[in-house]
Design goal:
Layout lengths: L1 E2 L9 E2 L14 E2 L3 E9 L3 E8 L5 E8 L3 H4 L2 H23 L1
Antiparallel strand pairs: 1-2, 3-4, 4-5, 5-6
The protein binds zinc ion.
The site of zinc ion has 8 residues, from loops.
Length: 99
């Protein structure tokens, strides 16, 4: 199964081997490398997916998608804070990965 990353997609499940979402037409392979399989978490700032990394023998990885709730998106101060926290987490993950 390939999961469409478009947050507004009505039917995000696609069959393996599909390149574009059958429902919304979005490209399914993120950066031509990462294939989301299933959502594993959802919070106020976005969603997390289990994924395969095609450039690393389809090793499992995680995609974190920044997609704040509408009430955060509508508030520029909350949006700035959310962006800061998301980038902070991304930097932390990067440093764990590099260590
Ligand atoms: Zn879609």
């Amino acid at each position: 199964m390939i999961y469409c990353l478009n947050p507004n997609c009505q039917k995000p499940q696609n069959l393996d081997g599909t390149k574009f979402c059958l429902t919304c037409g979005s490209q399914l392979l993120l950066k031509n490398q990462y294939q989301a399989i299933q959502p594993i978490g959802e919070g106020g700032f976005g969603r997390t997916f289990l994924a395969f990394d095609a450039h690393r023998l389809n090793a499992r990885c995680v995609i974190k998608q920044f997609f704040p709730l509408p009430e955060i998106q509508g508030n520029s101060q909350a949006m700035a804070k959310a962006t800061e926290l998301f980038e902070q987490e991304a930097r932390q993950l990067l440093s764990c990965y590099a260590a």
